[in-house]
Amino acid sequence: MVSLVTRSIDHDFGEMHRRMQWYVDEELLSCCATLVMHGTDVVDVALFGFMDVETREPLRWDGIHRIYSNTKLITSVAVMMLHERGLFDLDDPIEAYLPEFADMRVLRTGATSLDDTVPSERSITPRHLLSHTAGLSYGFLEPESLIDQGYAAAGLNLLGGYDEPLSDLCLQLGELPLVFQPGTRWRYSFATDVVARFVEVLSGDRFDTFLETSIFEPLQMVDTGFHVPPEKHDRFVTMYSGPDLLDHTKPGLFKVDDPTTGRFSQPQDLLTGGGGLVSTLQDYAHFMQMLIGGGEWGGHRIISQDALLLMRTNQLPEGVHVNFPTLSLPDTMFGLGFALLEQPDAEKPAGSVGEYGWGGMAGTSAWIAPEANVAGICFTQRMPAAFHPYTEEFSQFAYESATD
């Protein structure tokens, strides 16, 4: 653990440590790993809880975590690397590269069947995909909706064990209607998986091969990939679920994914760019250090600073913001792969304007605040655990302690 800290400064993270430990003690989380950076320097690393609740093995600093949608940040950087090579324009029609998305149909307002559609007024573009304004859906976030029922009927539900190659996924998505006209609204979706297939078509490589050679190897992300090989199963953290984190009267956890027999313990056909990677605290810190360093880390230039600035620029139409079925985030916009905190409310920490990042369903989150020169990573393994109090508390404590 100590090897992660690159600079020691006189800041007290004790209150944050005590609060994160509380979540473990109350059996709301099985584990929690936190890392705080000031600039690109790691100034605090802390581990709480267990690799596995039953064995009580303490969480390891090199523990491997399912990062789910934290994968999206990596996928977005990957495609923007190809944009910098001049292989596509952000406003190109995506059907020029992925013909299965030609002549898309859009559900009519108030539609009662998937056949009740109108022609799409414009093509889906890479800009739409990266900003989640393409009109695609995910199939599980709003199960009562017509579009998600259609996705479920087609078997397009990641929580249901869908495991087909990216090429097949895109063919199936192209056969379903869009839920709105591209570029008009925000909806979390398979869009980043389409981006992953786009990377394959542009580069000529399988998505995992491109990530390995272009990002993971130069950044020394040695434990990041789409599955955990048998020789690393002892470092793979068990994933749990339990009662709602908001209800502290119902503690208790139960295993939902085993390190040796679960979904990520063997290769998969679906190399999902939206949620398929596993990683470690150290590996993801390397990726974050590259972002903070303007696209360069350890002597390796991954992407230009100009491209990263563009990715951190809001791409949503006026009046549109990040909005989930049960959670509206009016202060959060979206760039090219990154959520952006443009106008934080009074409860947000000082210096959080311009914060960018994202999180994953199993309770992983990562953010960078350029104005405060602070960044944070918080990894847990609890499904589902995105947008819950411990992430906000970690962020608040990290800002306060790293900037005092």
Short précis:
By secondary structure, the protein is α+β, with helices and mostly antiparallel strands. Helix content is 26%, strand content 18%.
Could you explain the architecture of this structure?
26% of the residues lie in helices and 18% in strands. It is an alpha+beta fold and 404 residues long. It has a domain at 66-226 and 268-276 and 291-330 and 351-361: DD-peptidase/beta-lactamase superfamily (Beta-lactamase, 3-Layer(aba) Sandwich). The strands form six sheets. Strands 3-2-1-18-17-16-15-14 form an eight-stranded antiparallel sheet, sandwiched between helices. A two-stranded antiparallel ribbon has the order 4-9. A two-stranded antiparallel ribbon has the order 5-6. Strand 17 (364-369) and strand 18 (374-379) form a beta hairpin. Helix 5 (166-175) crosses helix 6. The model has no long low-confidence stretch (mean pLDDT 94).
Helix-strand layout with pairing:
Elements: H1 14-25, E1 31-38, E2 41-52, E3 57-58, E4 65-66, H2 71-84, E5 105-107, E6 117-119, H3 126-131, H4 146-153, H5 166-175, H6 191-203, H7 207-216, E7 239-241, E8 254-257, E9 278-279, H8 281-292, E10 296-297, E11 300-301, H9 305-311, E12 322-324, E13 327-329, E14 332-334, E15 339-341, E16 355-360, E17 364-369, E18 374-379, H10 389-403
Antiparallel strand pairs: 1-2, 1-18, 2-3, 4-9, 5-6, 7-8, 10-11, 12-13, 14-15, 15-16, 16-17, 17-18
